[in-house]
Amino acid sequence: MAERRNDEVWTAEELLERLERRDKFFVLDVRNRDEFERFRLEGRSPVPAVNIPYFEMLELGGKDEILDSVVAYVEQHMANQLPSDLPILAVCAKGGTSEFVAQGLRRLGYASANLKGGMKAWGLHYATRAVVETPTLAVYQVSRPARGCLSYVVASAGKAVVIDPLRHLHPYLDLARSKGLTIERVIDTHGHADHISGGPALAAQTGASYHLHPYDAIHPIDVLPATFPYEPIRDGQIFSVGQHQLEALHIPGHTLGLVALRLDDRFVFTGDSIFIRSISRPDLGGKAETWAPLHGRSLRKLLELPGRMTVLPGHVSSLAEADDQGIFATSLDDLKQRNDGLLVLQRENEDGFVRYLLESLPRFIPEYVDIKRINAGLLAADEDEASTLELGKNVCALSQAYKDSSGETT
Amino acid sequence: MSQSFDKLFDARGLNCPMPLVNARKEIGKLEPGKVLKVMATDRGSVADFQSWAKIAKNVELVAQETESVDGVSVYIHYVKRTA
After folding, report:
1. What is the pLDDT of residue B71?
2. Which of B22, B48, B54, B68 is best to mutate for the A interface (most A CBs within 10 A)?
3. Would you say the C-alpha torsion A354, A355, A356, A361 has a positive or negative sign?
4. Catalytic site residue A92?
5. Residues 6+ apart with CB under 8 A from B39
6. Percentage of chain A with pLDDT > 70?
7. Which of A337, A363, A379, B73 is the most buried (most CB within 10 A)?
8. pLDDT (tens digit, 9 = 90+) per residue, A300-321?
């Protein structure tokens, strides 16, 4: 009985496990069509999905009650669209409506589950994975899989530095508590556009210092300074973490104040520069043509790092980029062989690479201007506004990163 | 500007899909030409009422507005039964 119940409700965590295992299932998403277009479930392999807004089921099913309408609608309009041999995951915005849909499907004999908390819960789900964990050094990757956002905790001798913390602080506070770590520093590699930084809040809550390159303490479009206190990062600056050191490398291009952080000769936290599949876009400050050559020069500087170093990026564009442990990381040498942007960088001269960058820009996301304002302390957002601004997957990479990543069938 | 209405349906506190499901039942009880005012606290109801009204028969979404009542945002939908 307990097992059966479990099959009928999937938490965001269980969903992530199934996506990572490449379990086969089918999604019936009953949100509005524009919500579905903006933010859908994506896995390591394409997830087949169909989008029928619940009010269409209600109206065309024609019954007073939603459950009866779902049953009638599916019988009359969807008999051939739903697989009988796969679990069907019912998905809505917050998980309430999809519970009726899952019930209706089960009434018709389908194996159906509800995504608990809906796409909201999926979008807010965090996963923490150890990249390395030894008595003298640990690196944890804290991800928000639905958004493709990555952040890191570097720990040594009971001290920790948090890099690019995301908006919700609980993953970092929980990790610090469970591992007995004191968070000494919080570093933002740059002023983020796609998500709201947890940096200033985490620093304030833990008493840690907060570090940002001064160029990114100015909103690039408003040209107004940040309103919160920060310690300016300079190129070559060393931050100690217990027995280890992080070195800041100023690599402008995606933003003017972007820094990578090098941990000994083992790891490089590349922020929004080199990702796994592709590289970052240079246009989110509104100055693509001016910043693109800088971006190329910064990336060439990163290519001079030892090739065996492990790249730990700020984003991914798909869960398919994870390794077998669900970690998003690989060596610089590996990326030189297969990263879309780095392949072009190694082949082209500066002009050719700039041309490639400017031809590869995804659409500009208007919300990103406000997110940068929030990250400079120029604008405030409550939880509801923040989650609306952050809805969906990041679009911080070049357009090549987003091809073939959805599994829609309709 | 205050929109006129004939009946009030208070769906505050109800989560999706109940504001729309129950409002739809209430509209069914109205005479053609009459307007139902729906008050909801579920923000998703704004887009849902718009999209639903486009496909529903004999229904017109006359107006929508947002009010703050005791610090809580209330999403108001005026729905007319047209036939």
Report:
1. 87
2. B48
3. positive
4. yes
5. B8, B9, B10, B11, B12, B74, B75, B76
6. 97
7. A379
8. 999 999 999 999 999 999 999 9
